What does this fold into?
Amino acid sequence: MFILNAQSLRTHSFPERAFKKLTNRYKVGKKVEAIQLGLQDISNRREVLGIKNIGEGTIASRSAQMLQDLRRSTPHAEEHVVVGLENEAYKLVNQLIGNLRNLQTLDINNLKRVPDVIWKITNMRYLYIEEQEEDDPLKIDTVQNLQILSGITFNQWIRNNSSKLTCLEKLKIEGRCELVEEVEFSNSIAKLHSSLKSLYLKASDESSIPSLAMSSCPHLCKLDKKGRMQKLTETFKFPRNLSQLTLEACRLECDPMPILEKLPNLLTLRLRAGSYLGKEMHVSADGFPRLQILQLLRFK
It folds into this structure.
């Protein structure tokens, strides 16, 4: 198994040849002195060329922060002549990953954009994406052996044909979802009925998690929801085999216990900060017949 982590592009652990290519694009220290006048001209025309200065305005991406650190460590560099080279790094990452056709595990951290060549790696089993800044389309439905998909956004997910992902067992979807059509999203999850065992939905900002008919996934045993919910799903719409449930920031106004206590196989229930806004919860004498772990975190 070969694991490629985007963070490794910035450390000595990545293969020397690839690391050398990347550092040659980023290492402005030795080159700034020779091309200082040219960079000054680029910097003056950055709006026309679509290039932003490092150190000017808000720096959102980690790659930009890395460039800024390079500038600070380079005595010959002046703040106004060091320009962003994010696109160059993105091209290099695409080139490197696109050639790894037998890659099985890919862990991507802190890249502004996810490489658009993942669809070529048809042997991949595990894909982890963390802190992507752009919500560009991401084609993954050609990776039909995928078992774990973590960090894809709601908008990226619904643009794929999930019926092709017949091996997918663990799925984490996050990001803004106010433009996601509920029926379309629910159907996309239902197509995973034969394989899905773990589902994590995390809505950003004030957007609400789309409603979901989870009963269509009979093998689903672990469910995490973080984000606003209009209301809690009725008991009969939960998967019968659900054994672990976590709710956070759902802002439910009605007591969730009368519904949750009827889940026959629930072993672990975690109600975290912001999951319920009410002041009382009631559990009947015969509620939660198999519950073993109950977590109530940061209730006010």
